[in-house]
Amino acid sequence: MDRRKFLKYSSLAAAGFTFAACANNTTPSSPTGGGETTGSPAIDFGPLEKPNLTLGIIPLTDCAPLVIGKEKGIYEKYGLNVTISKEASWATVRDGLLQGRLDASHAVCGMPLLTQLGPEKAPMRSLMMLDVNGNAMTLSRQAWEAGIRPLPDYSSFDEFGTAYRQYIQGMSEPPSFAVVFPSSMHNYNTRYWLSAMGINPERDVKVIVIPPPQMVENMRAGTMDGYCVGEPWNQRAVFDNVGFTATVDRDVWQGHPEKVLATMQAWIEANPNTARALVAATIEACQYCDVPENRLEVVEIISRRPYVNARVEYAKASMTGTYDYGGFDEEDRVKPIPDFNLFNFMETDYMQRPDNANYPYASHGIWLLTQMIRWNQLPDIKEYPSDADEIIQRVYPTNIYEDVAKAMNIELPSDGMKVEPPEVFIDNRGFDPSDPVAYLNGFDIRVGRGKIFSFS
Predict the structure, then answer these.
(1) So which residues are the signal peptide here (predicted)?
(2) Which of 17, 25, 184, 191 has an alpha carbon 20 to 30 Å from 97's alpha carbon atom?
């Protein structure tokens, strides 16, 4: 990274903290206020059936709650002896959970649902959400040289979309665009973003899967023209002059679900008290990560070799609200995005109390199911299933989170079926979870265009 650019970037970090602190408004010490909770007494959920746990992570900034839970002694406070297992890919996370090698894991939010409904037909479950937002779309130097610039350089998304669509359609063959896993929000948000620009992800680009830590080197080698990944791998591309950020995905869907704490149904049944202690400790860790004054410490801890194994400055941008879109010129494109990584709560236009980033909204599961059907990821499911609500409740159960939240005096949202207003999506298309079939039928770009979906 250019020294002048690094010094300029570093000088803005403090401003990002100030911005984030203002967004939080206050940081009281109670669990519901998002303050530091490591000094508060642990809640007793009864004898722990399994105190020694192995938790999986992928080296990404949003593995922070699990790492902080271990490093700050939060899991230990709840009687849990946690070993962190750094996994090579989301596929090894899935397999580790299915095989019982991992007790629970940092996982992409669609993994439990696609594992339940896909070929494995395995009862994977989400204990809680770990965060919202957190990813970005990085494009290559080739795209830059063709005249494409970061979204903030344009007067509107439509203007950016016209330029990018013309660029894609002008290629002799579809370019490759990488995502991290088929059931990730990276995949669904990338497809949503492309479709909103009139680019068909099934025809106009080739969507490929590459593990997060391999994204930058694959772009450097010319394997793909773009990718969607969590941090610090977008900022590394910027800092190393390999690519530039086109769009942050909180602008595709503000407040979208991102990672979950995943486990298996059999593990929950065998370890009900342990499951609740694990969720309570992880909520405390999420709260700790969202205190602005803690963010630099969190970045330094997660950047260590056993975890993300990356230079600290790569993760600072998203975690301090001073995000650098980059570019292959001398323009300053550092923008304040304090909610790029949001682990528990920050007051925003799309998040107000009692909403928070950790509650497992059934509506998010319904949205994921619509996208799996939209892109034909579930060949055995031809229509929207009539028992979808029951499926979602099994895969994303609320009972454990709600038990823990009540014990921690955390107010619960009034409705788990949250309507997403048009203004939180980049194409101004709202989502009403009470009518998923109409939502599905409203998309012009989808597999099997012309087919009318209904309830099966």
Answers:
(1) 1-23
(2) 191
Going by DSSP bridges, is the β-strand pair 259-264/124-129 parallel, antiparallel, or unpaired? Answer: antiparallel
Query: What confidence score (pLDDT) does residue 18 get?
Result: 42
Q: pTM here?
A: 0.92
| Residues in contact with 254: Cβ distance below 8 Å, sequence separation at least 6, in sequence order | 133, 348, 349, 350, 424, 425
Segments forming the whole domain that contains residue 20: 3-132+256-310+348-407
Same domain, 169 and 293: no
pLDDT tens track for 294-312: 999 999 999 999 999 999 9
Region 359-368 average pLDDT? 98
364 in a domain, yes or no?
yes
Are 359 and 267 part of one and the same domain? yes
pLDDT > 90: percent of the chain: 89
